[in-house]
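Work package 3, deliverable 3.1, input record:
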Amino acid sequence: MVLVLVGIAFLVPATIVLAVCAERLRRRALTFAALLAHEQQRSEALVEQLDAARLRARGFESIDVPAWIETPAERIENAALRALGVAAQPPGTEHLLARGRTYIVRRVPADDMHVAVLLEWDDSSANVRALTAAERALRECQLACADHVEPVALNAARERIIPLVSGARDEIGQARTLIDEAVGTLTPSFLNLERAVRAQQAAARAVVDDAASDGIGRFVRAAEDLAETSARRLADQSSNAASLADSLLRVGTSVEGIVGVFAQIEGIAQQTTMLALNATIEAAHAGDRGAGFAVVAHEVRRLADRTTLLAADVRNLAGRAQTELEDARSRAIQAVEADGERIRAARSDVARTSDEVSSLHRNLVEAVKTLNDGTTEIEREVRRSITALQFHDLVEQVLRHAANRLVDAAADIEQGPTRSALLAPPARTLALVSPVAQHSLAAGGVELF
Amino acid sequence: MESTAPAMTITILAVDDSASIRQMVSLTTTGAGHRCVTATNGAEALALAQNTPIDLVLTDQNMPVMDGLTLVRSLRAIPRFSSIPILVLTTETGEEMRARGRSAGATGWLTKPFDPATLLAVIDRVTARRVA
């Protein structure tokens, strides 16, 4: 009974001490968990900055979220186990044997996102030494977390992130070079295209202006006038030919009259021959006295014969002249008729050609106007393209700024893995305001002061 | 872009660290009949301006070595450049930055990207304003 009472008297304070110690341990564990949660938040903020930088440098998806970010519960648990000299246990382990005792691994919610890990004993006979050992183990856990786990994790992060940052900077530089080279090639091409279009437009405008000033219409009217002049000249020639035919007709009539006159002369010559013959007979009757008269009568008859021959020659010549005149008149009449036909055909051709040229003129004017509209549209599109090509300058500045953010982040990490370093201000002030506010490629504004 | 001749032919100093922007400004202005010389930053432009007759300066803001507003202030300190038009062509759109440009002595503020026809119209306008 006494022993029981002594035992109770010993166990009650021991239990109270144990409860107090357990409560202290629980509070320290919670404090440590909160500290780690704070560091976790800083780490997450850093990750967010890196993510933001990654998003700014679109196209570099190879930047990972650092793998060293563990859940707080695993970090604390693993650190505690390492402090106790126990290898990491598989997830879900709740009991473990360390230093000859059985421990219960218990996770206590610290906040919405983190848990604290408590190590408790299930040995009811544990004494203060055991509690002291457990407390020491937890203190070692804290030290390990503060001076080992975090440095290891941050060193790992630094070793992973710094090469990534360096690589990202190199890739951003490469992207800037490629874009600059591409735009440097495209810009003269677009501007040369614009100049060619401008020249085309000027040529089209010249044609339109010429059409507007009725240059082709003037040409058509001039052609019509020329054709009409030619037709008139042809008609004049035809009229002359007709007059010639009339003249020839009148000449023929005159020649016919001359032939009639010579027929009368021929009759007179015949009568003269008869008279000379009678005079010769009368001279023979007169004997020697009529010899002189016979000579005269002979000469008269010879003269009448020559007159008859001459008249016959003239009549023959006049007949041939009449035939020639008739032929000439016929050809003149044919020429007049042919000229009339040609004049009608020429005027018809001129009228048809004039209609065709006028139609061609209208089509040309319409086509040139369409061409002019098209070149204006091309010129507008080229202007838009040249404006859009300046995207590279905006992108280049965004990339440069993103690279600077990465450099700042890397410098922040390089400051060191210790808590004091992390709590210190960053090595460089992050330029959080981008120099590029544009979110589209619309042409910018103009303000004159 | 304007097929018409400029109001007058002038010499323009285009300053930008981007080679293609310099090229665009140069081709746009020379295509309109102007002359154009270029520099890659403010310090280079300042050195060039000492020995070259310049009628108008068109400068970027964010450049290495010497930025645009420092260039504007430096040029305005030179009597020869006290009244020539100096336009800032930049991606910066903030009101504070514009106010700094105005205080530095800039004639106008053009936000990138620029429309070639608008740029030529602004050049003609500030040049005519100076002549008037």
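The CA atoms of residues 322 and 432 of chain A lie 122 Å apart.
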